[in-house]
Amino acid sequence: MITPDIILVLALGVLILFMFTNNRKRRKQAEALIESLKVGDQVLLHSGIFGKITDIAEDRLTIETAPKAKLTVIKQAVRSVEANVEQKNEEA
Question: Which pairing describes strands 60-66 and 69-74: parallel, antiparallel, or unpaired?
Fold first, then answer.
């Protein structure tokens, strides 16, 4: 006979398993994003800064945020690759 305690333990086990698989999937997506970065991409950093990649080193990126204003950040700081950021800025 299945007791409520066994059901609770099984539900907790399934929840923990789901959390681990979801975390692994998110980590693989982040690694794929970092590997796909190339010079000229418009990126959004986790800090909310937009910029264009001008140089890629081993674990760092140089990002131009404005004319003659460059930042050097680690690759993991990139949240996403943005499309048409310049077009959005021109419309505003």
Answer: antiparallel
Encoded tokens for 31: 């690694």
Give CA–CA dist 42/68, Å, rounded.
16
CA-CA distance, 42 to 25, in Å (whole number)?
24
Q: What is the pLDDT of residues 33-89, one digit of tens each?
A: 999 999 999 999 999 999 999 999 989 999 999 999 999 999 999 999 987 655 455
Q: What are 25's two structure tokens? A: 């999937």
Indicate the pTM of the whole model.
Answer: 0.68
DSSP letter, residue 77: G
What values do phi and psi take at 70, rounded to 5?
-120, 145
H/E run at residue 64: strand 60-66
> 38-92, which class in CATH?
mainly beta
Domain boundaries, the chain: 1-36, 38-92
Rounded to whole angstroms, the Cα distance separating 72 from 62 reads 4
